[in-house]
Amino acid sequence: MLDNDNTLPNEKVDKFHSVQLIVLILLDVQMREMSNQGYESLESINNTHEILNEAKDEVKFKIYGYIESRSRTFLYNLFSLCLIGIPYIVVNFYPRLKTLTYQKCSLDRATIILVSDSDGKYSWKQITYEKITHTARPLFGEFRYFFYQHTKYVWSTEHLVFVTLGDLIPTLTNDEYLNNTDGLKKEEYENRLNVYGKNELDIKIKSYWTLFIEEVITPFYFFQVFSVCLWLYDEYIAYAICIFVLTLFSSFTSIIQIRKQLVALHALVESSKCHEVTVCRQTQESNQDIIKINAANLVPGDLIVLPAANLIMPCDAVLLTGQCIVNESMLTGESVPITKTALQSNNEQYNMDTQKRHTLFSGTNVMQTRYYGGEHVLARVIRTGFDTTKGSLVKSILYQPPVGSDFYKDSFKFVLVLLTVAAAGMGYCMYLYISRGAAFEDIIVRTLDVITIVVPPALPAAMAIGTSYSQSRLKTLGIFCVSPPRINICGKIKLACFDKTGTLTHDSLNMNSIVPSVDGRFSLPIDNVAELDVESKFVQGMATCHSLTRIDNKLNGDPLDINMFEFTKWDLDEPGDDENTRFDMLAPTVVMPGRNIGTPGNSKDLEMPYEIGIIKQFTFSSTTSCMTVICRDLRNPRLMAFTKGAPEKLHGMCIPESVPEDFNSSLSQFTSQGYRVIALGYKDLPHKFRWKEAQSTKRSVIECDLIFLGFLIMYNPLKTETAPCIRTLHQANIKTAMITGDNILTAISVAYECGMVNTDDQVYIISMENTDDSPEKVPKVIIEKAGTSSSKDYVSLNLDNNDYHFALDGKTWNKLRYFYPDVIPSILVRTTIFARFQPDQKTQLIMSFQNLDYIVSMVGDGANDCGALRAAHVGVSLSQAEASVAAPFTSSIADISCLVYLILEGRCALVTSFAIFKYMAVYSLIQFFSVLILYRQHSNMGDYQFLYIDLIITTILPITIGLQGPSNKLGTKSPMKSLVSVKNTAPLILQIAVCAFIQVSVIFYLYQQPWFEPVPIAVIDPVIDCWESTVLFLVSCFQYIVLATVYSKGLPFRQRLITNFWFLISALGLTIFTTWLVIFPCKQMAELMDVVFVHRDEKDKLVFRYTLLLFPLIHVFIAVFIELGISDRKWLNRCFKILKCKRKSKNKYKLLLKDSSYRPLNFDEQCHDSMSFTSRTSIVICYYLHHEFSPNSNLLLPQTSDLSLCFLTIVAAGAV
């Protein structure tokens, strides 16, 4: 993929040079293979830089190649020494400036790399050269690499790009893994250890001194040091010392917190660490030695021997033999043990993402292993260290990707505005002092002092207060967050997506009944298994087609399997090695009828017990939506297979004659009532089919020509909190959607039941015409009314009403994305149910919603939703763990009420962050006005006055503002998203103007007093103990308290102000103390605070001080009016929209919902950019959606009067 925006300035490609153009095309073709592996390489002609996109970890960054220049480095060092090291500090802040000391070159020649991440941050990485003494494909000889974020990137001489070490190794097929059961030779092992390094997640706990240096080497702390030095020079000693002490205290507090987090992460890693593992080593005589080594010495390619039980996996490995029961709760949040089986024999390339059932992941607990005949359970190491899945979890915590919150971007814009104000103030200050003939030294000091006032040093810490308190409250509720900036995003959620099973409904599936199929006909539903023959294939299938195991004498496995097996009232046993001979090489699991069930009465069978051994398991596959087992009845040498899964999938696997004619209608009848339907089938395997063939045969050979046995009817009861939470979200105007792997009619029924679809609303199912017989044919879109059975009725869909919803399945989604991509936006905004979606399709769907400007949340159990949970703006995994790789949020609350809490806390955190930021901005400008006015009067505030304002008032109040909790009700109104929006800044400017006006007014009022004597103009040094300073100090103190109270407004996003006890106590105490200072302070306090002391006999001055209280009272009424009467009113927003000529929303989904013609956005542009005629004409589908259609003819039928328009549209699109 070529990127013209990043090409170097002097590297312009002449469009008339065809040779260079061909080179570019060839480079683009060459990079396609790397793009398919998760990388996008972006290179100039000279190969000076590239973009790496590691899809698995969602890391995207650019790298640029450089070589050292001795002459430039010498000049840089000399220049830095002359400026006492200042350039070193500047380069530390802005690493990109160091490019001046290097020379840009191609990546294949580079000795140092400049890395630019997606957040625009730069860092330098040294390229290391290393020689391999022994041949080890694909690396041999000398290779070059660098480390970035605990990942090793190696130069690929074949593709001429840097790639991760794991992706450089050729992918093997399943058969290549299975056919090689030899361990590594000593030489090869040593070579790989040299290349891959130790198998460790090395989370270094830095020393306090190192953390301190990293903490203080930042622009913020340098600004603090600069300010302290300035104040010390200006003899503001008390204030400077206090600020310095508080800065150190803040630094140490931050350092302790950072180290605490590192220790906690280190403990998390160590708690799931394996110290010793057994591996196979190939000797020179080609023998296999089984030895024990430290798990840290494992390398990819090692062959490990798994013990019988209780192993914490130290790496990612593919299972070659046997089976394992694994607990993956640390990674996925799913606490139900999972059965892992050996890799299946075929020529397909092994893929860890699609073959998770055959992969053991690092950090998971192998609870139990089984193998036939007592042989070893073997697994081949494929990833180690930070390349493992557990390593990805740790890296996601250490290096959190930028969230994209506009709040932080807006805050920097606002700081720039403050700096502009500071610049103006500095100019005015210089003018005053120059005009007075002040010394150059005084001019510089007074001018620089202005910038320390306008940009408050506490601003960065204050911005994080709201998020910090919300995170703490969420943790108390049992909701854990590894990415705190996402809490603010929770307050802006506009779309809530949910998985069904385990999220909206309970995990457990309760058996309702079974519907056997006999001779191609369904029998009546049976709710008691005793009504069936104990030897019937249906009962045998229910008893064997599962992946259950017994651990500590308790059944473990999928809840569906447990309920199905318990319904049969059979027993499960896992025999020892002495019982193996009854089943050839043996099945690890045996099932038999329970004691309360009568055994078969045939006397010839009494010699052998009625038991069935499970020879082979093909675990559930999201691709085929089914699982299969190969079994053998102890009394019969012939093997048989049972398959259960989605009825739609199993229908195609069965012999047509065995499938009832009313299969689809019966399935629709059950699913429309909300039941989950599982189909069951079986087949007898050939007589010569034995254990060996069972272990090596392909799945596709077994899952065909089955005899249909019938349906298992199960139901998922809704969780208690589901319906109320959905109702709450709808009342807050938050769209909800269900993304499930279940049947579409079952999903529709659950949507009605939980309130996601109102009872009066209609659901229309979107599907596509079946074109399997002619793949090149463009399928037609089918829209059916859910539950419609008439073949003649037409259904009118009025898009002007909002009383309908669309539903579609994963198969339709794939076809829409391929044939009609332009229609997808128009369909998505009206679709509520997404059924039969596979994990990768869920991720695609979330990203499609995000492209429509939705702020998307996704709630799931973490098992099959990892991709969607991580892709969403707010992903919540329902889990008991505090952190998982599945999502940035994990909730021990096992229902969707956690999302309501998150939205409430998110809105609270966002509003609190806005309030504190506005308060800090107003506080700095209030002090700025006070200082400028006093400078003009040849005065200034005293040290303890600054201390009282900066260290007491404006420190205590922002901290206590953050203690205000979220509202108990999720309202319709959403908080403002932009800090710099006109609606937000206009009231803020009014508040600032009022503050400035009051300060000017109080000075004018002071000038009107007959006893007042201003500071003499001839005074050189500013006078502190004067009436100007006293009046402005006291009035400004009230301004800080008033505005803090105003910005502590509660509803609708926070609790009422009266509930914030600590803020009220603080504000009341400060008000009382400040009032005392105004009315009549004691002489000692007046001297300490540099306030003019008034004797009791000075009546006129006492009266003046009493009347000063009128100014804060007036300010209270005006400030409250601005915040409640102007800021929160709809008319203000409408006025701004009119002034800005804003008629349409910027959000794409809002435009689509308002568009009565239901057309996709930017039609002309889409048609122009489209590469296929089919895509261009897809606009016709959107046009049809506004008209009548027949749900049963399965074709969109426009009105006759519209045919000409349709034809013209198609012709026009083709012409474009």
From TrEMBL:
GO terms for biological process: intracellular calcium ion homeostasis. Keywords: ATP-binding, Magnesium, Membrane, Metal-binding, Nucleotide-binding, Phosphoprotein, Translocase, Transmembrane, Transmembrane helix. Residues 286-397 form the P-type ATPase A domain. It is a multi-pass membrane protein. This is Cation-transporting ATPase. It catalyses: ATP + H2O = ADP + phosphate + H(+). Its main location: membrane. The chain crosses the membrane at residues 74-94, 208-230, 236-256, 414-434, 916-935, 947-965, 986-1007, 1027-1047, 1059-1079, 1103-1124. Its EC number is 7.2.2.-. One of its GO terms (cellular component) is membrane. Coiled coil: none annotated. One of its GO terms (molecular function) is ATPase-coupled monoatomic cation transmembrane transporter activity. The lineage of its organism: Eukaryota, Metazoa, Ecdysozoa, Arthropoda, Hexapoda. Belongs to the cation transport ATPase (P-type) (TC 3.A.3) family. Type V subfamily. InterPro entries: ATPase_P-typ_cation-transptr_N (IPR004014), ATPase_P-typ_cyto_dom_N (IPR023299), ATPase_P-typ_P_site (IPR018303), ATPase_P-typ_TM_dom_sf (IPR023298), ATPase_P-typ_transduc_dom_A_sf (IPR008250), ATPase_P-type_domA (IPR059000), HAD-like_sf (IPR036412), HAD_sf (IPR023214). It is found in: Membrane. It is an enzyme of class 7 (translocase). It holds the Pfam family Cation_ATPase. Residues 60-139 form the P5B-type ATPase N-terminal domain.
